[in-house]
Design goal:
This protein has 13 helices and 9 strands. It is α/β, with parallel strands linked by helices.
């Protein structure tokens, strides 16, 4: 992060300190993954949703739980399986004889932080049930629209697609995730700390909030006040144009993806204590924000992230 003593938003230093404490606290639980923790916080500040793709056991659930506890947010976890039904997620109306009427019993989606664990093990119908909730912050049940709590943040985990019993997420649902990150295996020092430090989930359960939900929502509003200059917008448009040029990917990014990229770059700038977006913010967030929305050209020999990085290196800053 950049120097907090320069170019701060008016009155933003206390907010920046709060955000740093938030990242610091989560990083004591999710050891050796500070960059990924910062990405997670930036995604939440930008009002998006996060997809974590990795093998089981590297700390995905622990990250989600530590984030919710550190913000005092209601947390629910749903294990996605092949037999999970949409009603298991959003809720169902049940007839109560004592009241002589149907009463809606909300499902786990009515939480502020929802961990959709192994989302690609559920069938397409149940995956789609999450779509309206993520995009519209509401669900429709029996012709009634019900608002979800605010803030509402989905962290979905996904197993590698070559594992048994997985259903690839459709492009329309992948596009609803602001960022996709990989936690990866810890380095040797971090793994030694994990081995010697006891149960991190138990330690996470003892965390106290460092920010309140209203303070978090105020921080989300502060993201909107971060400025993006005309040259910065030119740079973002140049990157969008490169994805559509036919030189790198089979199809380019949509305008919605460009808006999402700019929004999360603003969130990173806020974390850095600056009132404006710098090219560094765009470059730092670009692979996580767009690689899951793109398919490299056949024969490129690169995966989506590597292709994005190659495109980034070939695109000059405006």
């Amino acid at each position: 992060m950049n120097d907090a003593n320069k170019n701060n938003l008016p009155g933003a230093l206390p907010l920046q300190q709060q955000l740093h404490r938030l990242v610091d606290q989560i990083s004591t639980i999710v050891v050796g993954k500070r960059a990924q923790v910062e990405d997670c916080v930036a995604c939440l500040l930008a009002g998006g949703h996060l997809l974590i793709e990795d093998v089981p056991g590297v700390g995905k659930t622990t990250l989600a739980h530590a984030l919710a506890l550190s913000l005092g947010l209601e947390f629910r976890r749903v294990q996605f399986t092949a037999d999970l039904m949409p009603s298991d997620l959003i809720g169902v109306s049940v007839f109560e004889r004592a009241k002589d009427q149907f009463v809606f019993r909300p499902g786990p989606v009515f939480a502020q932080v929802l961990l959709a664990d192994e989302i690609n093990r559920a069938g397409p119908k149940t995956q789609s049930a999450l779509l309206e909730a993520m995009e519209e912050q509401q669900v429709s049940v029996e012709n009634l629209t019900r608002a979800l709590p605010k803030p509402f943040f989905v962290i979905a985990t996904q197993n590698p697609s070559d594992q048994i019993g997985t259903y690839p997420l459709p492009e329309s649902q992948l596009d609803r995730f602001l960022l996709r990150i990989v936690l990866g295996y810890p380095d040797r020092a971090a793994e030694r700390q994990l081995l010697a430090g006891g149960d991190k989930r138990a330690q996470a359960a003892a965390l106290s909030p460092v920010m309140t939900p209203p303070e978090l929502m105020a921080a989300q509003q502060a993201v909107l006040a971060v400025r993006a200059s005309d040259p910065l917008l030119d740079y973002v448009q140049a990157l969008l144009a490169e994805t559509r040029s036919g030189r790198w990917f089979s199809e380019g990014l949509s305008p919605r993806a460009g808006i999402a990229l700019l929004r999360v770059a603003k969130a990173r700038a806020l974390l850095s204590g600056r009132p404006y977006v710098a090219p560094d913010d765009v470059q730092a967030m670009l692979p996580q924000a767009i690689a899951h929305r793109l398919t490299p050209l056949a024969g490129s020999g690169r995966g989506p992230v590597e292709q994005v990085q190659a495109m980034l290196a070939a695109t000059p800053v405006s």
